[in-house]
Amino acid sequence: MSNTYQIYLISDSTGETLDRIFTAIKAQFKNIDYKIHTYSFTRTENQIFKILSDAEKHLNSIILYSIVDSNLAKFLANTSEDKKIPCFGVLGDLILSFSKLLNQKASHQPSGQYALNDEYYKRIAAIQFTMNHDDGNLVKELNKSDIILLGVSRTSKTPTAIYLANKGFKTSNIPLVNENSIPQTLKENPKMACVIGLNTEPERLVDIRKNRMNSLKETENKSYTDIENIRKEVDQAKNTFRKYNWPVIDVTRKSVEETAASVIKIYEIYKNND
Based on the domain organization, do 149 and 240 belong to the same domain? Predict the structure, then answer.
């Protein structure tokens, strides 16, 4: 008997919500063997019936769904029960509970989170700004940033900035070679935006930089991966952050999402004290 679980992710929109939820779920369980079947923009009973007919053919099928149309969601749940396939909705009870608490009827509109509203256009503007202000570019416009990230090479500045941009934050990032690499305008006004230093353990940075060099097939720049040089870089960065009283996040073994969450907390404190 196969122990591979067949995970069916059924959504009436892009499926991004379900994908993130399942990622969080599977992180809680070790050594599980699974195969994902993703079905996006599922909005008819016929589509659902075809999916469940396929799921019925496999052992260990599990349905995880995100469908806001209550009638369609009920059809999926009932048909799954008839076929004896475990089935779990991730939004239905939440929407119903919020509807009662807010004393407001839900729209039950698929893809409602992707409406082309002010928030959407703000996010697009933030992404454009962040891409233009990557890696120390356009430093004359630093004062237009919501967040400024500084750090030595390979401390996740760019991926963190892009993640923050997708949350609507205009983010600049500046590579920190030494204090002289900090733009003069930022030295003169170190609180012009929410400025945050990113740092990491030197030993971890050696591994990351070596992997980077290997991917580029670069072998000549040995100082870039030298542990003593890296220790000096990290110590200099710490001293610089301390001098300007900038908060610091240790990104050692942190995911981009975890680093960004810490950045947002610091930003909220900065805005409250502004």
Answer: yes
Q: Three-class SS of residue 246? A: coil
Name which of 62, 85, 79, 87 is nearest 7 in CA terms. Answer: 62
The residue out of 87, 114, 141 marking a domain boundary is 114
The answer to whether 41 and 16 are in contact (CB under 8 A) is no
How large a percentage of the chain has pLDDT more than 90?
Answer: 66
Where is average pLDDT lowest: 134-143, 159-168, 218-227? 218-227
Q: Are residues 101 and 148 in the same domain?
A: no
* CATH label of the domain that carries residue 101: 3.40.50.2300
Say if residue 1's pLDDT is above 50.
Answer: no
Q: What separation, in Å, do the N-terminal and C-terminal C-alpha atoms of the chain show?
A: 62
Tell me the angle at which helices 227-243 and 202-215 cross, rounded to the nearest 10 degrees.
120
Q: What is the pLDDT of residue 105?
A: 76
Please give the residue range of the domain that contains residue 217.
118-273
Which helix (H) or strand (E) covers residue 47, if one does?
A: helix 45-56
Note the pLDDT tens digit of each residue in 16-62.
888 888 988 888 888 889 999 999 999 999 999 999 999 999 989 99
Tokens 């940033």 map to which residue?
145
Given 114, 139, 173, the domain boundary residue is 114
- Whether 99 and 136 map to the same domain: the answer is no
- What's the CA gap between 97 and 190, in Å, rounded? 45
Average pLDDT over residues 219-226: 79
| CB-CB neighbours of 178 under 10 Å | 12
Bridge-based pairing state of the strands 87-89 and 61-66: parallel
Q: Return all residues near 140 (Cβ < 8 A) that are at least 6 apart.
A: 185
